[in-house]
Amino acid sequence: MIGWVDASSGASGDMLLGALVGAGVPLEVLSAAVTAVAPEAVGLRTETVVRGALAATRCHVDVADSHTHRTWRDVAALLAAAPLADEVRDSAHATFERLAVAEAAVHGTTPEEVHFHEVGALDAIADVVGVCAGLHHLGLSALVVSPVAVGSGRVRGAHGDLPVPPPAVVELLRGAPSYAGPAGAPQMELCTPTGAALLVSHATSFGAQPMMAVATVGVGAGGRDPEGHANVVRLLVGEPVGSVPAAAGPGGSGGAVVLETNVDDLDPRLWPDVIAALLEAGASDAWLTPILMKKGRPAHTLHVLAAPDRVDAARAAVFRQTSTIGVREVPVGKTALDRETRTVAVAGHQITVKLALLDGRVVNAQPEYVDVAHVAARTHRPIKDVLAEAVAATQELL
Ligand SMILES: O=C([S-])c1cc(C(=O)S)c[n+]([C@@H]2O[C@H](COP(=O)(O)O)[C@@H](O)[C@H]2O)c1
Ligand code: NI
User: Fold this and answer.
1) Ligand 1 site, CB within 6 A
2) 246 by DSSP, 3-state: which?
3) Which residue CA neighbors atom 9 of ligand 1 most closely?
4) What is the fold, at CATH topology level, of the domain defined by 254-334?
């Protein structure tokens, strides 16, 4: 399945949450991920509202702490400690990393020193983690995002009075198509930094709706309801028809890139952390091959697989984390099976199951290990028993 985000009225975190629920993601999938991260109670609830002439889903994030400023390091620590599926943790981390890099660029500091203002508060963290969990649940093989409407005028926040688009949004949308918004749109902020970070973190390309057979539509409502303007973001989910545009986002063409370098003078104890740092920098995969170099010297070839829009970050991580002074890069074709996710119930608890499909037929079904371990802990049963039960329940999906 693929997705298309209609951002012709911008996007914010809670709007995207509403669109995901409207597109069929169970609210408990979002709530479970948010609860796993939040150090205190966070409630997600939805209601159907009308924006302009459109029925839409408004998602409320109810949390006591909505003004604590956190640093990027604080947020990274919350994500690292949370019992989350790796893909959800990684995409939430990458989203906040983009926010930290943008915020640092705008304010002339470093990502490590960045103090998140609104986006560091728990409700914003819930937005990011919930959206990442919802998109992971959909298991889309591609997400095309329309040109992003950013709005106009001024906005007041923790930074005081800011022009619209806010500086962080301008920074985050570098390389992505954006514009003030449709003719007649009210003077307001349409895309927030959290919305922009989530869009660019997950877009595989930007453009008009691709040829697709739409199966579900989610319409996420913004908090404001200006006269004569439907303040919504739409998420269309369906089967692709023909070819989906290659990744034309900030990172360029489709496919992937393999970066390689031979290293013979790095303390071997460092390699596990090098691999971890590359994955954290957004690489799709990283691995080592032992080799013998000139003079019979033992060494390793470091291989890094990266999507086009992650190559810069992966390359920088290779240079920062190893002793190499040169990296070769090979564009490669990459074929990935369509992915979908479902949930199965074991002992009354939801377990996400990742499905891989070839020509529309399920060829692989894998229960999410983090969920299995979570249910085993909650029910005081061996993980292997819960896993066996989840696999058995999955058979009914095939
Ligand atoms: O919280 C941060 S880092 C922040 C940075 C900026 C800059 O442009 S710099 C602007 N804002 C404003 O805060 C609110 C809420 O943003 P969310 O992303 O949390 O929805 C919004 O008006 C932003 O323009 C926040
Ligand atoms: Ni700022």
Assistant:
1) 12-13, 103, 106, 116-119, 124, 155, 157, 159, 162, 166-168, 189, 192-194
2) coil
3) 168
4) Alpha-Beta Plaits (3.30.70)
Torsion angle defined by CA atoms of residues 246, 210, 339 and 178, in that order, rounded to the nearest 10 degrees: 70
- Nearest atom (ligand 1) to Cα of 116: 3
HSE of 231 in the Cβ direction (CA atoms, 13 Å)? 22
This complex has an ipTM of 0.93
**What are the residue ranges of CATH 3.10.20.300 in the chain?**
338-397
Mutate to test the pocket of ligand 1, among 116, 122, 159 (most ligand atoms within 8 A of CB): 159
Q: How far is CA 130 from CA 56, 164, 237, 384, 387, in A?
A: 18, 26, 18, 28, 25
Per-residue pLDDT of the chain (398 residues; tens, 9 = 90+): 999 999 999 999 999 999 999 999 999 999 999 999 998 889 999 999 999 999 999 999 998 866 677 899 999 999 999 999 999 999 999 999 999 999 999 999 999 888 887 777 888 899 999 999 999 999 999 999 999 999 999 999 888 999 999 999 999 999 999 999 998 889 999 999 999 999 999 999 999 999 999 999 999 999 999 999 999 999 999 999 875 555 544 444 456 788 999 999 999 999 988 987 888 777 889 999 999 988 888 999 999 998 877 777 888 889 889 999 888 887 666 677 777 777 788 887 778 788 888 777 888 888 888 778 777 877 889 989 999 999 998 888 77
Where exactly does CATH 3.30.70.1380 map onto the chain?
254-334
How far is ligand 1, taken at its centre, from the CA of residue 389, in Å? 45
> What CATH number labels 338-397?
3.10.20.300
* Cβ-proximal residues to 96 (8 Å cutoff; 6+ apart), any chain: 72, 75, 76, 79, 119, 128, 197
| φ, ψ dihedrals at 392, nearest 5° | -65, -45
